[in-house]
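Duplicate of earlier report; Probable GTP-binding protein EngB input re-posted below.
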Amino acid sequence: MSAPLPFPLAEEPDDASREAGRKLFAAQTDFLKGVVAMNGLPPDDRIEVCFAGRSNVGKSSLINALTGRKGLARASNTPGRTQEINFFTTTDGPYLVDLPGYGFANAPVAVVEKWQKLLKSYLSGRASLRRAFVLIDTRHGIKAVDEEIMTLLDKSAVTFQAVLTKADKVKAADRDKILKQVREKLSKHPAAYPELVMTSSEKGDGIATLRAIIAGLD
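Output:
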């Protein structure tokens, strides 16, 4: 019998988990505020999950697919446009937190440094943060800039789960090679949650699984 793969793909949720995820995201999700400094954070009166990813990884599209609202997180073709930590409220559920995209930011160096400082402060100082979802483009696997955020999450002792995006853009034959690379890289990060989620915002693949995971956190 072969040994189980490290970082297996998350299994399809059971009926109860799937329904909990569906109900959470079928209810209203609203934009709460964009935060540019730690003193602007909303009170940590509920748990929260955050979404991190380099520019153009499909973060806005994933948040829109999860919530079933096309324009909730504004997608932009200009890398590095999201310069704030954006908070969204779910009905009787966690905050969803959209972190600034990292890498290739189309912004002055001083602005980039300011976001990075804010990002580090948020990740290391937010007690209500239950999980970070680090988005990885399935076409490219984990890049050096992704490892930087993963190392930051390790140091901050924040559990993170890798979510592969744009899975529909990769041929099945190439997926195994990418998954092997992702698993090898993740094995070096102690804060990595031992399960992957593969998604396609366009096709809806993996969305129910990710909804169920978020609904199951406490």
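Helices lie at 15-26, 59-67, 109-125, 144-155, 172-186, 207-215.

Merging into the original ticket.
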